[in-house]
Recover the amino acids of this structure.
């Protein structure tokens, strides 16, 4: 007889099979799982057989960590997460890593943001592991410099964050990971050339870098299907990405002071040329600004096979020529998403300086009849000041619809862009736009400051 949470007076959860209890305890930190041993004799050793360990030893006594590991009795670890500092704990950290490897951990996660220790290097046994399938390392003090041969023969997903690795070290890692399918390099330093031509199983690559982390200047990845590239300061050349079907280029260019005359032709538009087989494309605001300059300078655009296009940008006049030209060269476009994120942008001062350097009159450039918004900069300013934001956005959407021939769906994701009244007004206008253009127009609202696309795992 079941009464409440008990079966004949016995705690219902305690009556569950060990496999289910292990699954439940795998979702909480190991410290919390250990506390369940005080509930009853039934729970005394359940935690010790749970095949997932999550240890935070930033404040814990190393001896207590050793004691915890000594009680662990599961024959295999499916997941091991270690969050630690390195100061005065290197031996303990190395011991935890060795413990995870000796228990054939399939998922290994190492997290430390301790900048007091410089140039920490993993021990050699870290690089010889035939069981790990997912490896995540996040540490500002780790230098991935294998002194031995790397052998990660089962590794499929590798994520490195805030690590330092050279081109030579990276080649060692790649050659020792023959089954690698997914690679993330987030704010990693010192490597320059990313040659993935020998990684035949690699399908997904994500690179994110800031002003402090230069990242690669060249990418060779002929087997890649999905690319997510976000960085600043230096342009990145896509040498061979011939198998790409999905790409996200949200690249930030801080200023144009050092830009040479051939920059647009050989870098920004060249990146588009390398994406001619991509069917799903996401482009950020500053990349659109650079495309605008390319369009105004008369740089020819490649014809793209893109069917799904997402533009992550603020609606500002400096992105308009780039969007207009891009839509013209995507004749098979079926779905267009405008994501009105608040993002960094190149100042109009720098944009106009660039145009002047190329002997172009900025007033005439922005007055181009090919623009989604015909008229001068002053005309756009008047529209923004005299009309509600909803009217301006509706006008923008209307002109975009007229710039495309094959579009079936337009989605507008608004992030903190309109108040409630303006949103309702835009919904009403969208209904009219949808009816007049035979295109499904969807308006969605989001309060998230920034939302980025993610690739499927």
């Amino acid at each position: 007889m079941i009464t409440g949470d008990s079966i004949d007076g016995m705690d219902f959860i305690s009556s569950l099979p060990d496999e289910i209890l292990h699954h439940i305890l795998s979702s909480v930190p190991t410290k919390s799982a250990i506390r369940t041993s005080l509930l009853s004799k039934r729970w005394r050793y359940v935690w010790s057989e749970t095949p997932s360990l999550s240890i935070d030893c930033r404040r814990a006594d190393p001896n207590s960590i050793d004691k915890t590991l000594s009680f662990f009795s599961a024959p295999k670890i499916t997941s091991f997460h270690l969050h630690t500092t390195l100061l005065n704990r290197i031996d303990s950290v190395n011991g935890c890593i060795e413990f995870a490897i000796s228990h054939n951990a399939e998922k290994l996660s190492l997290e430390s943001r301790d900048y007091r220790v410089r140039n920490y290097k993993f021990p050699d046994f870290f690089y010889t592991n035939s069981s790990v399938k997912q490896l995540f390392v996040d540490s500002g003090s780790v230098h991935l410099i294998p002194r031995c041969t790397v052998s990660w023969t089962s590794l499929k997903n590798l994520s490195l964050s805030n690590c330092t690795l050279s081109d030579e070290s990276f080649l060692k890692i790649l050659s020792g990971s023959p089954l690698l399918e997914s690679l993330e390099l987030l704010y990693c330093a010192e490597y320059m050339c990313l040659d993935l031509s020998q990684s035949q199983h690699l399908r997904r690559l994500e690179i994110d870098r800031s002003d402090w982390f230069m990242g690669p200047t060249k990418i060779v990845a002929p087997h890649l299907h999905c690319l997510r590239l976000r960085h600043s300061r230096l342009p990145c050349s896509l040498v061979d990405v011939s198998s790409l079907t999905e790409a996200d280029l949200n690249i930030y260019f801080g200023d144009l002071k050092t830009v040479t005359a051939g920059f647009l032709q050989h870098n920004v538009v060249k990146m588009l040329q390398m994406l001619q087989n991509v069917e799903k494309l996401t482009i950020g605001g500053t990349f659109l600004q650079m495309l605008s300059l390319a369009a105004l300078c008369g740089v020819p655009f490649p014809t793209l096979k893109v069917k799904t296009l997402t533009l992550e940008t603020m609606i500002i006049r400096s992105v308009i020529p780039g969007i207009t030209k891009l839509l013209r060269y995507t004749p098979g476009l079926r779905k267009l998403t405008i994501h009105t994120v608040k993002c960094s942008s190149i100042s109009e001062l720098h944009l106009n300086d660039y145009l002047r350097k190329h002997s172009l009159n900025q007033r005439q450039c922005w007055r181009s009849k090919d623009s989604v918004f015909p008229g001068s900069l002053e005309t756009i300013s008047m529209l923004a000041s005299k009309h509600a934001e909803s009217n301006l956005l509706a006008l923008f959407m209307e002109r975009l619809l007229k710039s495309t021939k094959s579009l079936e769906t337009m989605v507008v994701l608004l992030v903190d862009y309109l108040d409630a009244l303006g949103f309702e007004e835009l919904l009403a206008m969208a209904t009219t736009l949808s009816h007049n253009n035979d295109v499904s127009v969807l308006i969605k609202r989001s309060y998230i400051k920034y939302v980025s696309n993610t690739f499927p795992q």
Remarks:
- The chain is about 30% helix and 20% strand.
- The longest strand covers residues 409-415.
- Residues 156 and 313 are 33 Å apart (CA to CA).
- The chain has a mean pLDDT of 79.
